[in-house]
Task: inverse folding
């Protein structure tokens, strides 16, 4: 029972049989099943976010030769839970001259945008909730809502730091969006599909069929550009504690602040998951002989490795200046990704 | 069990409802004692000077404009990329011309200094 597919089908069967015995119409059974899927993924993501925040603090601690949280539980495992409980009790301060409606909706948009992505992430064999045929295009479009929410948060706070942070994040995210999309294009050309499920199927079962080898340039561009999209160091100008004292979320407190924080870490896992699906073979084991380890363990392992690399970036590089940051996107990454597409196209035509 | 876009719609609704519920639930637990100083904007401890909704550096908008152009072009590239293997040499040459035009646009913007941050 290490593969979760069996459990999913089992639960689905139980729900269907109970609803059938009650005589409910098919549409209600479907809605109940969809809600169960959403709740399961949601619960997984909440645990993942708690774990990622702990992991970030531990990784940063050990990279800087200190221990990180140690007091709450074994090696501080309960630290994030304590923080979440603390944030739940914090007063919700909305500054007097803020735009109240936009201020209220910004955390909703940021969380929804990052949660809705997980409808099309293949977590394991048979663990893809919605295999829509434009999966990766959907992910690209829905993650762009993060820009909107950061801009909303920055604007609504009516605070100079917040607005500057929001503007910076908007210009930065849209600049890196273009090379990011172009780097995915190489994989799309090789696979001939946009569906997340198909990407994984095409990359099995051997490690040399992973797209990271023929698309290595695309992989590097994707990783750099998505680090920039996450607003993380070395691209963390929108937050920049030392100059903007936290940027767009400066006027947020309590649960609304927690939503921004949660979304930041979930987006980090999203990047790990999408990189895994597109370039690292998804839930496929490197060799068929290693298939006795369940597919979702491979998926989580690869995704968390990418997340670890992104954390590693954060504690290794200093922050870029805004002009360097933007010219790096337009003058370095964009030409390289065009060259990558042309090379991929010629390569596919020749071979 | 493939529900497609219905499931995506439920996910979006679920996200919205979750955040609204959490903010509401936290509202039952947290203190609510606003005062005038607390509701002032933060500006490093000083009284804020004027609002933040002011005219802004035009550089941000230039980047936004270039982004709109390039992102729309990239969306045009997606259907081509999906069908690329079936289309063969003709599609390759046609798309090389398209990308050449894009690169010419990039070179023009570069030469005009639209990609240089002016402070």
Result:
């Amino acid at each position: 029972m290490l593969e979760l597919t069996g459990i999913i089908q089992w639960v689905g069967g139980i729900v269907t049989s109970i609803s059938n015995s009650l005589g409910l119409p098919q549409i209600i059974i479907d809605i109940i099943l969809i809600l169960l899927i959403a709740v399961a993924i949601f619960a997984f993501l909440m645990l993942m976010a708690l774990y990622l925040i702990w992991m970030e603090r531990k990784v940063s601690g050990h990279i800087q030769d200190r221990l990180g949280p140690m007091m709450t539980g074994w090696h501080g495992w309960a630290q994030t839970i304590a923080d979440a409980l603390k944030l739940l009790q914090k007063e919700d301060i909305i500054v007097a001259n803020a735009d109240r409606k936009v201020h209220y909706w910004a955390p909703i948009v940021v969380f929804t945008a990052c949660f809705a992505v997980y409808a099309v992430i293949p977590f394991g064999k048979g663990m893809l909730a919605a295999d829509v045929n434009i999966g990766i295009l959907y992910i690209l479009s829905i993650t762009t809502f993060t820009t909107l929410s950061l801009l909303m948060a920055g604007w609504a706070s009516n605070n100079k730091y917040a607005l500057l942070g929001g503007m910076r994040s908007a210009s930065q995210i849209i600049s890196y969006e273009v090379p990011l999309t172009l780097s995915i294009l190489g994989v799309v050309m090789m696979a001939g599909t946009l569906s997340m499920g198909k990407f994984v199927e095409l990359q099995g079962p051997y490690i040399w069929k992973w797209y990271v080898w023929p698309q290595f340039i695309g992989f590097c561009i994707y990783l750099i550009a998505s680090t920039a999209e996450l607003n993380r160091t070395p691209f963390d100008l929108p937050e920049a504690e030392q100059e903007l004292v936290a940027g767009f979320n400066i006027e947020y407190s309590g649960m609304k602040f927690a939503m921004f924080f949660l979304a930041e870490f979930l987006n980090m896992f999203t990047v790990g998951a999408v990189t895994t699906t597109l370039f690292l073979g998804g839930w496929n084991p490197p060799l068929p002989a290693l298939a006795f380890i369940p597919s979702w363990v491979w998926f989580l392992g690869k995704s968390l490795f990418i997340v670890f690399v992104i954390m590693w970036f954060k504690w290794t590089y200093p922050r870029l200046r805004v002009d360097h940051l933007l010219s790096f996107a337009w003058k370095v990454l964009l030409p390289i990704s065009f060259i990558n597409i042309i090379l991929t196209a010629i390569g596919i035509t020749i071979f | 069990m493939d529900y497609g876009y219905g499931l995506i719609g439920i996910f979006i609704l679920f996200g919205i409802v979750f955040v609204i519920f959490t903010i509401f639930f936290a509202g039952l637990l947290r203190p609510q004692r606003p005062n005038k100083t607390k509701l002032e904007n933060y500006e490093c401890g000083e009284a804020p000077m004027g609002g933040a909704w002011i005219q802004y550096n035009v550089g941000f908008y230039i980047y936004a404009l270039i982004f709109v152009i390039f992102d729309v072009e990239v969306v045009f590239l997606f259907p081509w990329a999906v069908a690329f293997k079936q289309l063969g040499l003709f599609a390759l040459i046609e798309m090389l011309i398209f990308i050449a035009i894009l690169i010419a646009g990039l070179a023009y913007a570069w030469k005009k200094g639209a990609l240089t941050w002016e402070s």
Helices of chain B lie at 5-29, 59-87, 89-111.
